[in-house]
Amino acid sequence: MAETVSTAHMAVQRRTTLASIAVAVVLVTLKLGVGLATGSLALVSAGIESSGDVFAAILTFFAVRLGRQPADPEHPYGHGRAENLGALGEAGILLAGGLIVATEAIRHLIIPGATPDTHWYVFAVIAIALGLDLSRTVISLRAAKRYGSPALRANGFHFAGDMAGSVAVLVGLLLVRAGFAGGDASAALVIAVIILATATGLISENANVLMDRTPAEAREAAERALARLEPGIEVVRLRVRESAGRYFADVIAAVAPGAAVIEGHQAADRIETAIETALPGSDVVVHVEPRRSGLDLRDGVLAIALAEPLVKEVHDIAIYEHDGSASVTLHLKFDPDLALHDALSVAERVEQAIRARSGVSEVQTHLEPLERPLIAHAASTSSDRDAMHAIRRIVLQRTGSEPRGTTLLRTAAGRVILLTLAVGAETSLIDAHELGGELEEELRQQVPDIADVIVHTET
User: Fold this and answer.
1) Which parts of 291-444 are beta strand (E)?
2) Would the pTM count as exceeding 0.85?
């Protein structure tokens, strides 16, 4: 569906550009022919400027075709900049035409020549030119706004300049008819100023796009959208670029160092949605990293430890406050095949970085191998069944109700008990944790060959 819409857009833009070429050819013929026949410098200048329209419209035609081609490995951002190049080329043609017209107008003002004829058909040509200029200006600007095409927008401004030039020709010839001999050359000079001003504006606009200058309005809109996100998301960097009316944004966002991968992904999704809402149709890439500033001591310790690539897991972070300072302990897990010397080097760097934080007087790390998957078997022997009965009895005595779920597994390290307990809805997390810890200790004492006990509590 999107491909069909894009094809339709390209067809409309091609028709608009081809119509511009046809109209430009007609105007060149009329303006130059009548201007040379009557000796009107203003009309000849307008014809020269319109001849530039023919080349500019052809340039726009090919730029639009190339600019709407899809992205490929060599052009991952698409070919939209071709339209800006086309608009820049069109501005160059305008600039050259404007300089030629200005030079001739000034020469005729300094050295007056013959007064041009002002027959009725001259004004008829100007009226036709005004009508054609008005129609193609409106059509081009509407198409440019609808499809976000810089090349068509450049065409629209170009045609608007033509229309202003035709008005200047009309005024100049009316002044000649009224007896002011310099009216024609003055009108030509006005046309030159219009051409040069239009060319300068187009060069400035499209050069800024090609130089990746961030559009101020787009950046401000994106910043406002990001500012409305939840405080837990910190935007470290925002970059916005434009290509053929479409915005590309890349964002670096920082989240809490303990956030899970899915939480970081959700934060990235919220950032993409915010920018796409502010800048419809934009392409947004978000890089998520752990926050390094504005963290409390615990999160700061976690961020420091996880910044080490060889650290696979961090747990049991404990902070002991005493005498105006803090002692920090934490467990670091490494790949079990890692040499102790390498693990100690990492731990030393982690400890030094934590000690560098204000208020930390001592740091102690405990190094552990990351657990490998264990081969487990469902408990099925008579002694296992006796153990299951003992587990249920102990839970019933300790909590007043049997466990909601009980699983007993056998591994090479011993038995593993997985328990699910029901507690009251008003139970605090601390109380539930203490209950699990006490029950684990009791099971280890009364059930033989226990390697691990995992207690899950729920209401």
Assistant:
1) 313-322, 325-334, 360-369, 377-378, 405-411, 414-422
2) no
pLDDT tens column, 334-365: 999 999 999 999 999 999 999 998 889 999 99
Q: In which element (H, E) is residue 450 found?
A: strand 450-458
Domain containing 385 equals 377-458
Please state, in angstroms and rounded to a whole number, the distance separating the CA atoms of residues 388 and 380: 10
How many Å apart are CA 131 and CA 335, to the nearest integer?
Answer: 78
- CA distances (Å), origin 190, targets 102, 132, 252: 8, 20, 50
Indicate the pairing of strand 283-290 with strand 313-322: unpaired
Backbone φ, ψ for residue 409 (5° rounding)? -115, 150
- pLDDT tens track for 398-429: 888 889 989 999 888 888 999 998 888 888 98
Strands 246-255 and 283-290, by their bridges, are parallel
Of 323, 348, 369, the residue at which a domain comes to its end is 369
Please give the radius of gyration of the chain, using alpha carbons only, rounded to the nearest integer. 39
Asked whether the beta carbons of 299 and 263 are under 8 A apart, the reply is: no
C-alpha to C-alpha distance for 196 and 203, rounded to whole angstroms: 10
Question: Do 204 and 226 fall within a single domain?
Answer: no
Single-letter residue type at 436:
G
CA 166, 167, 168, 169 dihedral sign is: positive
C-alpha angle 313-318-319 in degrees, rounded to nearest 5: 135
CA distance 40 to 115: 8
With a CB cutoff of 8 Å and minimum separation 6, the contacts of 412 are 374, 375
Given 325, 346, 369, the domain boundary residue is 369
User: In the chain, how many domains are there?
Assistant: 4
Q: 13 and 157: one domain?
A: yes
Strands, DSSP E only, in 137-201?
none
Contact 302, 311 (CB under 8 A): no
Same domain flag for 312 and 406: no
Q: With the C-alpha atoms ordered 311, 315, 320, 326, is the resulting torsion angle positive or negative?
A: positive
Residue type, 171: V
User: Would you put residue 219 in left (φ > 0), alpha (ψ -120 to 50) or beta?
Assistant: alpha
Same domain, 420 and 335: no
